[in-house]
Amino acid sequence: MRSLTHGEVSFKRMCHLIKKYINAAQDYKYHITVGTDSQNYDITKVVVVVAVWRVGSGGIFFYDVRKVTKITNIRQKLFYETSLSIEMAQKLSSYLEINNSNCDIAIHIDAGNDGPSSSVIPEIVGWVKGSGFNCNTKPDSYAASSIANKYSK
């Protein structure tokens, strides 16, 4: 994982930094979001983002860049992105032991009701919710649609 503030960090170190960030101001509500986006080149560049929003007071984020064989099918690409987000959210949930009322984990999907990705949204949202996480799509999916999108280019 990478951080603009902390540089290269391991998953374990990222979790430590997230816990430290939350513990530094426990009176706030926190939203942890995981989002993935990808761009096609001669390969597919995939970026997974973990963003921690301290509601009313900014936030921090971490991202991981992967390069995989080019994925040209939009449906396959969205399912791949979602699988990476669910996997990361499950690991975070276990490691951070998120079970208090001031913090939750949601998955952001880079798909909206307009365009070629709209037909797959019900399946993806059902999959995410069935995995135990809240789900946001465009225009409310900033971790995927804004942060991951920026670093995938």
Number of strands: 7
* Main beta-sheet strand count, sense and barrel state: 5 strands, mixed
Shape: globular
Give the helix/strand class.
alpha/beta
Low-pLDDT residue spans: none
How do the strands of the widest beta sheet line up side by side?
5-4-3-6-7
Tally of contiguous helical segments: 4
Average predicted confidence as pLDDT = 94
How many domains? The number is 1
* Topology as a string of helices (H) and strands (E): EEHEEEHEHEH
User: CATH first level: which class?
Assistant: Alpha Beta
How helical, in percent, are the residues? 25-40%
**Percent of residues in beta strands:** 25-35%
Pfam families: RNaseH_like
InterPro entries: Phage_KVP40_Orf299 (IPR007405)
Helix-strand blueprint:
Elements: E1 2-3, E2 7-8, H1 11-23, E3 30-40, E4 44-54, E5 59-68, H2 74-96, E6 103-109, H3 121-130, E7 134-136, H4 142-152
Parallel strand pairs: 3-6, 6-7
Antiparallel strand pairs: 1-2, 3-4, 4-5
Describe the structure concisely for a colleague.
This protein is an alpha/beta fold and 153 residues long. It has helices at residues 11-23, 74-96, 121-130, 142-152, and strands at residues 2-3, 7-8, 30-40, 44-54, 59-68, 103-109, 134-136. It has a single domain (2-152), classed as 2-Layer Sandwich (Nucleotidyltransferase, domain 5).
